[in-house]
Amino acid sequence: MTSHRSGPRHGGQRQGSQRRIPRPHGVAPAALRELKDCVYRLYAEAGTPPVAHIASEIEKDDSFRGSPSKDTVHRIIGSPDLLAGQEDVVAVAVLLAREAGLDTREVGERVRRLWVDAQLAEHLGTPVRDLDPLALEVHQAISVPGQETLPELPLYVERDHDAALSEVVSRAAAGESVLATLVGESSTGKTRSCWEALRGLPEGWRVWHPFDPTRPEAALVHLAEVGPRTVIWLNEAQHYLLAPDPRVAERVTSALRTALTEPRRGPVLVLATVWPRYWDPLTTPPAPGAEDRYEQQRTLLTDLGRRIPVPKAFTERDLHQAERKAAADPRLASALKGASDGEITQFLAGVPELLSRYACAPHQAKALIHAAMDFRRLGHGPALPRTLLAQAAEGYLADHELVCLDSDWLDRALAFCGTPCNGVPGPLTPIPGRSNGTGGTAYRLADYLEQQGRVDRRLLCPPVSFWEAAARHCGGSDECAALARAAGSRGRLRAAAALYRKAFEAGNTDVRAPLAELLEGTGRLAEAKELYEAEMKADGWARWELIRLREMAGEPAGAEWLAHLAAEQGLTSALSRLAQLRVKAGDTLGAETVIRNSAARGQVGTFAELARSREGVGDRAAAELVVFSALDASGSTYALSEVARIRERSGDGGAAEQLVRAAALRGRTRPAILLAWMRQRTGTDPSAAGLLEAAARAGSVFALTELARLRKKAGDSAAAERLLHEAAAKSSLFALTELARLREKAGDADGALRYYRTAAAKGSTEALAHLALLREGAGASEEAERMACAAADAGSTFALLELVWLREKSEDRRGAERLADTAVGAGNTGALTLLARLREDAGDSAGAERLVLRAARTGYLLALDDFVLRREKAGDAEGAERMALAGGDQSVVRLARLREAAGDPADAERLYRCAASLGSTEALLNLARLSEEAGRPEAAEEFARSAAQAGQAEAFSELAHARARRGLFQDADRLHLAAADAGHGKALAHLAELRTSWDPVWADLPRYGLLDNGEMARPW
Q1: What span, in angstroms and rounded, lies between the C-alpha atoms of 616 and 614?
Q2: Could you give the CA distance from residue 188 to residue 156 in angstroms, rounded to a whole number?
């Protein structure tokens, strides 16, 4: 709006006693919300005039075509609904714009457009009462012969998770925006539970299920339109939160967070379902230093949302409820009779019949199912084109089966797969209205078979026809990229390159780098370089691969410029790697040029590189010129310290000392201190003291405190105190604290107190902690605790630990635990361990164990491991195992290692088996190793297979290395191939290394990749 402000015409004075109209909340759809926001903003900018004034002013002005009453004006401003005609709304808006001094023509035109948009807008979603459960992907139930008039869904049996979900829905109905995620395996009743929960919502709620054109696309486009009293239905939430394009997934996640946290859009209820295999990566924090790929998703699901686990089986109580209802529903009665292990929902969803149909499928139909399983597990979306499945399936058939195929085999096989199983969809069903973009039908694999395929086919690599079909018929660029990654990790490099190229040609620029890497491997350097150049042009980042290719292409200046840019962007090794590349190529002069130019640009690391190279060839004058150039250019002493270290280690301490003293004269004392530390470690303290004195004279406060430490160590407390006074005068809090310690040690409690108080007043948390202990010694326990807690809040918990120890020794156990809990709250989980050790030493093993388990629950598992070790060393094997089991699979693995190291492999194996039963794949790897060492190769391979099945495909390679060391090369080769087929990315290199040992031609294997028969692919 163009502003022509002259202040509100009614002088800012309210006429009458009307209060300000509250801003309307809960406005939907989005177009109406935009109109209401616009009008209310005008109302606020006009000074919130009374409605009587607005109605009166409009009535007086014949230019207005609308004539709203006071009630209508109030509704136009404050109601969440569109309850007025266009001319009335425009009249109110224009009058408010005039009052606010705004451009009335522009406002009138804009509000007129917004009113039309709001009038035409439809609410997102469908009213709850109009919903079809099957449209929300509730599993269709089995049918029972002779019972054609049964309701669409079986009678529902409420279980424990339903109560938890009902509580979440009640919060939403009461006006709170909430998210619930039901986590369970396929066909366990997650979606049905959500459907039943919708019945707890009052009139006016709508359900929106984003799925068209794709789930993530629908969510991205329409999430901003979500308004109050909307259920966002995210069945199979992995399709939204783990979308193939990570950027899309993050945008969907952030939009969901906004919908949940923006008050004026609430209440919003998000109901999500997901399998555990997707929940775990979405919510598990990354390892320290690793990329946090799912921070947004983790925040959404665990901070804003609630996880509700859905068990696979009915409990005894659930089964009793089902039995009571079975008389009224023969499907439930059939499930109770036929289901095994209490898996009632799976039976109702037709899983047994589905599995039977799969097991007994003709070979052509089974080939289609296996192809679909492989496409889904390796990254293709749920819509599988007919042409994709048809071409891929041929590779899943034996030669004699292929010969027998007739012209209509595909139609017959798809008809078999699509036939319902007791009334529920078959293994592969056509998706209504979905095609592959060329008019062909797309099919969906049954959820349960998808889950089954991820387990049963985890270790298998698809045949050539699979990859060829993907390269020809896979439509989505993200799906092509996912399949390309799967092919690459399995050593099928030609297929990977074809799929990456298809993804790139479809607009996926994220695949340029992996495609370039594959092309470079085959010697197509120009193509690879072109891709890397395009990548750099797109994002501005200098990559080592492009630096290397420019150098190899005869562009040394371009390579060097790019290396400098890479160094500036944080890839500090780029310049030294380029120099090494030139040295390797015999261009020592070119390497020297890189280092010199880098040093001239102020790259600290290359100053040191150049100085080291000059020192190494004996050109000390040049080395010193470089280090002092670095000092002058950047202020960095790194290069100088490196040369001094080299000279000291070569035995020329005098030259090293001369160098650091020269730096000290320039005000740079760090090299002298570092050299002093080197000499202290080698026992030459007197010369170290001389260096510290030089640094102190140059103004280093740290050197003064280090000198004081040396004097104190030599027994000269007076000299130490003098040096500390000098450092304290230069504002060293450390020196003040050290002075207090000296006074305390000398028995001068008042002097110590004075120094600690001074340091604490200046912000030293360490001094505050010491002061707390002094006050404790003086009998002022409450004051001591207050000081210790204040120090802990500032980051120093050692006083709290001391007080814990003192309270425990004085038998004040409650006080000790209270202070230990305070320390834990301040981040020191070791406080509970300290207390546990004290109780263990006092003979209270049960009390110690209780505290250790509390520490473990706070995440401090080291405490548990420490006590497991203590129990083990004390000969309490039973106690050690009990505590290890409390810590979970990893603690049991560590105890197994202890038993193994103690020479008890049999008991170690028992514990590894126990850890494996708790879910530890590391235990499976150790079981494979132990079995191999014990001469049980079949058992070793079985354990390796189990580890690979659980996601640790490297288990095959580790076993292969063990076989190769024993000279069993044929076995090793077979196991490396198994690792490659299972997707272990390093298996190709391991296989090449093994085979090259008997034939150098295999050195090219990492360049060209594998064929299905294990041979090397021909150059491509």
Answers
A1: 5
A2: 13
Q: Of 210, 201, 197, 207, which Cα lies nearest the Cα of 175? A: 201
Residues 6+ apart with CB under 8 A from 448: 186, 187, 346, 349, 351, 354, 355
H or E stretch including 588? helix 588-600
Q: Residue 996: CB partners within 8 Å, gap ≥ 6?
A: 1002, 1003
pLDDT value, residue 633 = 67
User: Residue 65: CB partners within 8 Å, gap ≥ 6?
Assistant: 87, 90, 91
Is pLDDT at 281 greater than 50 in this prediction? yes
CA distance 208 to 214: 14
444: closest CA among 366, 483, 386?
386
Higher pLDDT, 486 or 848: 486
Write the burial class of residue 464 (CB in 10 Å: 0-12 exposed, 13-18 middle, 19+ buried): middle
351-360: long-range contacts at Cβ-Cβ below 8 A with a sequence spacing of 24 or more? 351/187, 351/448, 353/142, 353/421, 353/422, 353/424, 354/421, 354/424, 354/426, 354/427, 354/446, 354/448, 354/449, 355/448, 355/449, 355/452, 356/421, 357/419, 357/421, 357/426, 357/427, 358/427, 358/449, 358/452
Overall pTM > 0.70: no
Q: Which residue has the tokens 């195929």?
A: 405
CB 342 within 8 A of CB 319: yes
Tell me the C-alpha distance between 915 and 40, whole Å.
63
Q: What would the pLDDT profile of 192-247 be if each residue is shown by its tens digit? A: 999 999 988 998 899 999 988 888 888 888 888 888 889 999 999 999 998 888 88
- What pLDDT score does 605 carry? 64
How many residues are there in the chain?
A: 1020
- Strands 206-208, 230-234: pairing is parallel
Given a cut of 60, whether residue 391 has pLDDT beyond it is yes
Helical axes 781-793 vs 798-809, angle rounded to 10°:
150
* Interatomic CA distance for residues 92 and 29, integer angstroms: 21
The DSSP secondary-structure symbol of 461 reads: P
Q: According to the 3-state scheme, what is the secondary structure of 530-562? A: HHHHHHHHHHCCCCHHHHHHHHHCCCHHHHHHH
DSSP conformation class of 1016 = B
Cβ–Cβ under 8 Å, residues 982 and 945: no
Question: What angle in degrees, to the nearest 10, is found between the helix axes of 861-873 and 877-887?
Answer: 170
**What is the three-class DSSP state of 1005?**
helix
Residue 462 is given by DSSP the state: P
Torsion of CA 887, 893, 897, 900, to 10 degrees: 120
Instruction: Tell how many helices (H) and how many strands (E) occur in the chain.
Output: 56, 9
pLDDT, one tens digit per residue, over 654-707 is: 888 888 888 888 878 888 888 888 887 776 556 777 777 777 777 777 777 777
pLDDT tens-digit readout, 761-795: 777 777 777 777 777 777 888 887 888 788 777 77
State how far the Cα of 758 lies from the Cα of 762, in Å rounded to an integer. Answer: 6
Task: For 346, list phi and psi in degrees, rounded to 5.
Answer: -65, -40
Q: Which strand (E) or helix (H) includes residue 432?
A: strand 428-435
Residue 350 confidence (pLDDT): 83
Q: How far apart are CA 984 and CA 998, in angstroms?
A: 23
The answer to whether residue 289 scores a pLDDT higher than 80 is no
Token pair recorded at residue 152: 């669409």
d(CA 430, CA 167): 37
Helix 386-393, helix 409-418: angle, nearest 10: 110
Instruction: Kindly state the tokens that stand for 561.
Output: 């410029």
pLDDT bucket at 6, cuts 50 / 70 / 90: very low
Rounded Cα gap, residues 95 and 107, in angstroms: 10
Tens digit of each residue's pLDDT (9 = 90 or more) over 998-1008: 999 999 999 99
In angstroms, rounded to a whole number, what is the distance separating the alpha carbons of residues 932 and 947? 15
**Paired residues of 429 in beta bridges:** 444
